[in-house]
Write a structure and sequence with these properties.
The protein has about 110 residues and is of the alpha/beta class. The protein contains 4 helices and 5 strands; from the N terminus they run E-H-E-H-E-H-E-E-H. A hairpin with a 2-residue loop joins strand 4 and strand 5.
């Protein structure tokens, strides 16, 4: 089963901006209860979309530069990047179906 990749400020450009596939990035923190609730949903989606979309997690406490660059004010915040640019942004806990809509839109389906 696919697992989201842990990324940082240092490899964000390489793993997200320069990615050839769309990338879902979960901006989160370990102490955030809604983030913990969202984690299994994202893990399920990473298996469901394996090979089509990459999944990544960025701890905002450990990586404040990227979080600041994308104006992440509340967590969880999920971005779907396509072609190196944010294609969609969802703030707060969202149900699986809402995340799937953003992923399907990035895939053009």
């Amino acid at each position: 089963m696919a697992e989201p990749t842990i990324i940082s400020d240092h490899d964000f450009e390489e793993k997200v901006i320069k990615a050839t596939k769309p990338v879902l990035v979960d901006f989160w923190a370990p102490w955030c209860r809604p983030c913990q609730m969202l984690a299994p949903v994202i893990k399920d989606l990473s298996a469901e979309y394996e090979g089509k979309i990459d999944f990544a997690k960025l701890d905002v406490d450990q990586n404040p530069l990227t979080a600041s660059q994308y104006h992440v004010m509340s967590i969880p915040t999920v971005f779907v990047f396509k072609g190196g640019k944010p294609a969609s942004q969802l703030v707060g806990f969202k149900p699986k179906e809402e995340l799937k809509k953003a992923l399907d839109a990035a895939l053009g389906s």
